[in-house]
Amino acid sequence: MVNKINDIAWQARQGSVAAIIQVLNEKLANSGVRTRAVFDGGVLQLLCEASTVDKLEQSTLVKQIQQILESIAPRNIRRVNINSRIVREQQLLWLEEITRDPENQLLWSEEIILEIPNYFQELIKKFRDQKSESAKLILPKFQSSRPKAITNHKLKNSAWGRLSLALSLCLFLLLLGWLVYAVVNGKLKNIAVSGISNSQASTTESFIQSASTQTEDAFTQAVRIANQASADGKTAKTSTQWLEIAADWQRASDLMSQVSPSHSRYQEAQIRTKLYREYSETAQEEAEKIKKS
C-alpha cells in the first residue's frame, strides 16, 4: 500500500512545516530565494533569504508566497509572517535573532492571512487525493491468457464499480446540501434538541470532560514522539526520512507548548518546546543537505 507520509504535497496540506518549506523552495528555486519556517504562537514565521536585494522585491515575493500557500491550503495555518534578509550562515535560533533586533536583521517583514477554502473546495480536493492514491495502486499491465469473455466480464464489473462510486458521491452531495439547508433554516437545531435523551446528554457531558483533560497528557505524548524521533534520527539516510523526523520534532514541540501552567512539569515543558523546535530545524537542514548532494 502506498505510504502517504512519502507524499510531500499531502504532508504540506496536513500542516507539516518541513513539507511546506520543501514545496516553497521547489516553487521559488528559479527566483533564487530559499525559505525556512517555524510555527510559533499560531503564526507560521517564514524567513526568505537571497544573495541580492532585487531577488527579495516585497510585493512580488509576497504575492508568490501567498499564491503557493493558498494552493496548498495547509491545515490549521492561516496567519503567515513573511520576513526577508540577505542570505547568511545557518542560524538555528534565527527567529529569536530577528525578533530581538528586526531593524538590523531584516530588509522587510509583512504578515498575510491565507484565504480559507470553502467546504466544497475541500471536498473536491479530498476526492482528487483519494483518486490519485487509487491510481498509484494500479498494478502494471500484463498479457492475460484467459478467454476474452472473462476479460469483457471484468471490464463490465469495473465500469459498474465506477458508476456506483459516482452515484454514491452524488447522494452524498445531496445529503450535504440538505444539511446545509436545514442549518440555515433552523431545522437542524430543532431536530437535534428534540432527539437528545437524558442518557445522550450525559454522554455528551462526559465527552466534554474527557476532552478537557487531554491537555494533561500533552507532556507524555510529546515525550513519546520525541523519543521516537530521536531513535529514527540514528538510522535516517534519505531526505524524506529526515523530513519525517523534522515533522515529528515539530509535533512534539507543539504538544509541549499546549501543557497547562498548572501542570507540575510546566517549566520543563517550556524548555522542551524551544528545544524540540530547534531539533526540527536541524532535521530540515539535514534533509536539504542530502537533497543537494
Could you list some keywords that capture this structure?
63% helix; GMP Synthetase, Chain A, domain 3; 4-stranded mixed β-sheet
Q: What is the rounded Rg? A: 24 Å
Q: What spatial order of strands do you see in the largest sheet?
A: 1-2-3-4
Total DSSP E strands: 4
Q: What is the residue-averaged pLDDT?
A: 77
Strand content: 5-15%
The computed structural class is alpha+beta
Q: If helices are DSSP runs of H or I spanning 4 or more residues, what is the number of helices?
A: 12
Biggest sheet features: 4 strands, mixed
Instruction: Name the CATH architecture of the largest domain.
Output: 2-Layer Sandwich
- How many structural units, i.e. domains? 3
Describe the model.
With 293 residues, this protein is α+β, with helices and mostly antiparallel strands. It has 3 domains: 4-119, GMP Synthetase, Chain A, domain 3 (2-Layer Sandwich), CATH 3.30.300; 158-195; 214-292. It has helices at 8-13, 17-27, 58-72, 94-100, 102-105, 119-136, 148-184, 187-195, 198-212, 218-233, 239-257, 266-292, and strands at residues 34-40, 43-50, 79-86, 108-113. A 4-stranded mixed beta sheet has the order 1-2-3-4, covered by helices on one side. It is globular. The model is unreliable at 135-151, 188-199 and 201-216 (pLDDT under 50).
